[in-house]
Amino acid sequence: MAVHTTRKGLRLPITGEPRQDIETAGAPRRVGVVAADYIGLRPTMHVSVGDEVRRGQLLMEDKLALGVRHTAPAEGRILAVNRGHRRALKSVIIELSRGELEGRPDAPRF
Percent of the chain, pLDDT > 70? Predict the structure, then answer.
């Protein structure tokens, strides 16, 4: 692999330095499964908008790779199933349940 070095750079006239504060972010209220993370995914959906899901529950299965199943990362309600061009799946959004938000989700029951 080639190593690239720059001899001249752009010197930006920025004064001062960054604040050394670390801020805590709020807990997320929604999580999602993004189809772009799974190249070539052709899903068979097992849930629809409004369904209640638990952690590990089957969301979709790949039509081309038999036996490849994608499960819910958290407990909650399916808020949206976003589709793109030619109905290609873009994402599945899950609104977290109260127990999941408080850090004590229900035990999986299937």
Answer: 95
Cβ-contact 44, 80 below 8 angstroms: no
Q: Are 92 and 58 in contact (CB under 8 A)?
A: no
Task: Return the SS3 of 48.
Answer: coil
Model confidence, pTM:
0.74
Three-class DSSP category at 35: helix
CB atoms < 10 A from the CB of 101, how many?
Answer: 16
Cα-flanking dihedrals φ and ψ of residue 6, to 5°? Answer: -105, 135
Mean pLDDT, residues 75-102: 94
Distance CA 68, CA 14 (A): 51
CB atoms under 10 Å from CB of 24, counted, come to 5
In tens, the pLDDT along 46-66 reads 999 999 999 999 999 999 998
Instruction: Report all structural domains of the chain as residue ranges with CATH numbers, in order of start.
Output: 30-101 (2.40.50.100)
